[in-house]
Amino acid sequence: MSDLTGLELRSTADADGRLTLNLEEVTLAAPAPDEVIVRVEATPINPSDLGLLLGPADVSTLETSGTAERPVVSFRVPKERIGGVRARLGQSLPVGNEGAGTVIDAGAEAKALIGRKVGMMGGAMYAQYRKLKARDVVPLPDGASAADGAAMFVNPLTALAFVETMRMEGHHAIVHTAAASNLGQMLQKICLKDGVPLVNIVRNEAQEKILRDIGATHVLNSKADDFRARLVDAIAETGATIAFDAIGGGSLGSDVVQAMEQAANRKMTEYSRYGSNTFKQLYIYGGLDLGPTMLNRLAFGFQWSVSGFLLTPFMQKAGKDVVGRMRQRVVDELTTTFASGYTATIGLAEALHPDVLRAYERKATGEKYLIDPTR
Fold first, then answer.
1. Residue 101 to residue 119: CA distance in whole angstroms
2. What is the pLDDT of residues 177-219, one digit of tens each?
3. Cα–Cα distances in Å, from 278 out to 169, 239, 306, 320, 345?
4. Beta-carbon contacts of residue 252 (< 8 Å; ≥ 6 apart)
5. CATH fold of 154-315, please?
């Protein structure tokens, strides 16, 4: 096949404090012997994509230009947030962590993949075509669609990584916030299969029902008047000493660690001014709240840690065998444990429509978009 030209969604921040989204033409040369070219047919908009897509832009300042086929959208970046994009100023960056599609060309070493539907991860997925190493694609099970495989990496592997981290660090139960998300539902299904106690924290009754319908036992509404008391009870019952927080800002993570300490204190036979000897771990893996993280550390005792959590460093630390086992489980349970639901399927140009942009920027549970660049 000769060189192939297609559209790719790009995000550019400039020194004048503007962030611009547009569709650029990109030409792919013929694949090397160990490469494939995939026609992208499904790629999700995950919260993890929004950091690059929108960065610290103020979405309320949205302005549009261009044409219906090649729209251009721009936003102002507040002065106090410019520091967060300084390293990328002036660079036109491709967006989209993962996706799926059909292999339409391949080098000599990968010809067997031509015509196969594959999942892939590696950035630049909001595009009509993607070229990458054959080792970076995973053939989908027979009968699986591109939509089935579009989100087979970020959320599934992160949910599995939570359970692996729990085991590696000697914990026995988990607390999870923003738990009704696609990732949260996957985590609950994994924990049910693996017999891991899980305390889910949500924000409303509709989200609570989503998890209870899956089979969740411990689902707490953080807006309820008795939330903190119920949280201590649930942690005491499950023995949870590790938490994964998708919120980031505010005091919810602090509330969880404090509840762990209070649950541990119930078992203490004598007072210690240093608190319990139960080690408590909070990992912050998301930023649904971009405000500062507030920690009431004097309520934790002295056996605790707060850290960031990212999937890639975890996989590097876990090693090839663990990651291989995780990936195989995703393939085996692709349409059950790791199935994702979407609000709507949209084209590349539609992804830059103001109403759609505002919808996925809200990062609301139940509002997840799938891009099909062939539309």
1. 7
2. 999 999 999 999 999 999 999 999 999 999 999 999 999 999 9
3. 13, 10, 15, 32, 46
4. 177, 201, 222, 245
5. Rossmann fold (3.40.50)
